[in-house]
Design a protein that fits this description.
It contains 11 helices and 14 strands. It has 2 domains: 219 residues, P-loop containing nucleotide triphosphate hydrolases (Rossmann fold, 3-Layer(aba) Sandwich); 72 residues, MTH889-like domain (Alpha-Beta Plaits, 2-Layer Sandwich), CATH 3.30.70. It is elongated, with a radius of gyration of 24 Å. The longest helix is centred in the middle third of the chain and has 15 residues. It is 36% helix and 28% strand.
Length: 315
């Protein structure tokens, strides 16, 4: 459905996207995951024909985005990072306007009504866009992308800046859309992508560092590999004790909230469970373990992991 081959984009001497290739099959929801500045928006702008690549090709449903831009673009609905909304229009006026702009040929009233129903924006149809909440604005932006019923949807950070309830709503809308569309969605937050995507392409500094199904990637970067523990006892000795446990890779002292009590962040090897060992040893020394919790690894940790794996030749 979408084929990206050896795509490169340079801004002057800065290489924002560095020779990336991937494919998206029909009906897939692909997550494009990477920290800020990784090259996600640049890639999406090239995929949608808003930006030309320095090198490489993009075909959408068999149409080359450079050689056959009109046909390629007709297959895509795009929600850019900054949704192209006109604040002084009502939702109705805006969607009408976008319908004309896209030269849509589907029955106007019925088509727009259907989109508003799917996006759950019927109740704000007559309101000015500038008076809508961020969540509604985002849904109007997505509605705009759906005009013309394009088979491919490209959504750039669709949940950024939304509150948790709005995020859940947008996620479930994306899942609904994924039933009838091929979707690429970007985010810098792993759980965001995990929740909705079948497959994840991880991009870092313009390069793809992982391309896996969500299940495979989650297994590789197991979530329970970092513990935060709070222990009452002398900081140096406690650090040494934790470091001495089999399976511990790294110990960092975080802070002290009460006198004599410190928090430590403990990274453990894949498959290791140090909790019992830690408890027993601390008990032997008479240093109480006050709390222990697993911590989700951050994207940064995942990148470090991925890079170590690649450099270490473990893949
Ligand atoms: P992301 O969407 O993953 O946060 P971007 O694609 O926006 O990343 O940016 C990738 C890199 O390219 C960043 O280092 C950014 O500063 C740079 N960049 C983006 N747009 C431009 C531009 N128009 N001119 C110069 N550099 C740019
Ligand atoms: Mg971006």
């Amino acid at each position: 459905m979408i084929e990206v081959k050896n795509l490169t984009k340079r801004y002057g001497t800065h290489c924002a996207v560095n020779n990336i290739s991937f494919q998206v099959e029909e009906g897939q929801i692909l997550g494009f995951l990477g920290p800020n500045g990784a090259g996600k928006s640049t890639t999406m702008n090239i995929l949608t024909g808003y930006l030309s690549p320095t090198d490489g090709t993009v075909t959408i449903n068999g149409h080359d985005i450079l050689e056959d831009p009109n046909k390629a673009k007709a297959n895509i609905g795009y929600l850019p990072e900054q949704p192209p909304l006109y604040p002084d229009m009502t939702v109705r006026e805006y969607l009408d306007f976008m319908y004309d702009l896209k030269k849509c040929v589907l029955p106007r009233k019925r088509h727009i009504a259907e989109i508003c129903k799917v996006m759950k924006i019927e109740d704000v149809y007559g309101r000015l866009i500038k008076n809508l909440s961020k969540g509604y604005k985002q849904r109007v932006g997505m509605a705009q992308a759906l005009i013309g019923n394009p088979p491919v949807l490209i959504l750039d950070e669709p949940t950024v800046g939304l509150d948790p309830n709005q995020i859940i709503e947008i996620r479930s809308l994306i899942k609904v859309l994924g039933k009838h569309h091929t979707v690429i969605l970007s985010s810098h937050i792993l759980p965001e992508i995990e929740a909705v995507c079948d497959r994840i392409v991880v991009i870092n500094e313009g390069k793809i560092v992982a391309d896996d199904t969500t299940a495979e990637l989650s297994a590789k970067v197991s979530k329970d590999r970092r513990l935060t523990v709070s222990i009452e006892g002398p900081v140096k000795e406690v650090t040494a004790l934790i470091s001495g446990i089999n399976g511990v890779e790294k110990v960092v002292t975080l802070n002290s909230r009460e006198t004599g009590v410190y928090e430590y962040s403990v990274d453990v090897a894949e498959g290791a469970d140090i909790r019992r060992d830690l408890f027993t040893r601390l008990a032997q020394r008479g240093w109480p373990l006050l709390s222990s919790k697993s911590q989700t690894m951050s994207l940064e940790d995942i990148f470090i992991n991925l890079t170590i794996r690649q450099n270490g030749g473990m893949q």
